[in-house]
Amino acid sequence: MVGIWNPFGAGKAQKQRALALYRGLMAAALAPEAYAAGVVRDDMDHRVQMVSLHAGLLTWQLALRPEENLQRLPQLIHARVFDGFDASLRETGVGDASIARKVRKLGEHHYGLGKALVEVLSGPGDNLVTALSDLLKRNGVTNSGREGELAHHLAALAEALEEVPSEVFLAGAAAWPTFPATSRRSVAKGSAAP
Fold first, then answer.
1. Higher-confidence residue: 117 or 8?
2. Going by C-beta distance under 8 Å and a sequence separation of 6 or more, which residues neighbour residue 7?
3. DSSP reduced 3-state for 77
4. How far apart are CA 28 and CA 92, in angstroms?
């Protein structure tokens, strides 16, 4: 039997793809290793920053891909992230009257941190870890003096995401090495994690 063509079916597939990629980035951003190691404080503000950094890495890479389906995914992923922020605030007891204001504030920080991350990733790659460390320090993402550890990890994540074939992203999957991931590029250049 021949099925009827559904013009809205592609939208459903995109939402499923975005949901799967969102779940992967959330698992990576909230994985306990960086928090347990004392690199990042384990509180809501710093978890939001980690989610923003991981979402920024993923959406940066998706936007660079030639496939239109992948280029349209960042908007759906960001929508999922904001739904997650909203749900987290509600779980902490934030009332309906102030939730929009708090989500807007989180959104401004999320997009600001994401934009700064994309600028660093799009810049010259020879000082990527240093540029990432400066970004983390400016935004207070890590505990004092631990910026380099997270910067090396983020550089390794960026490298891992660059190596993911588009077909894997289209299947709703991505590589998320656990903390502390190391970049082959930084190892090859002779720089070591602090």
1. 117
2. none
3. helix
4. 22
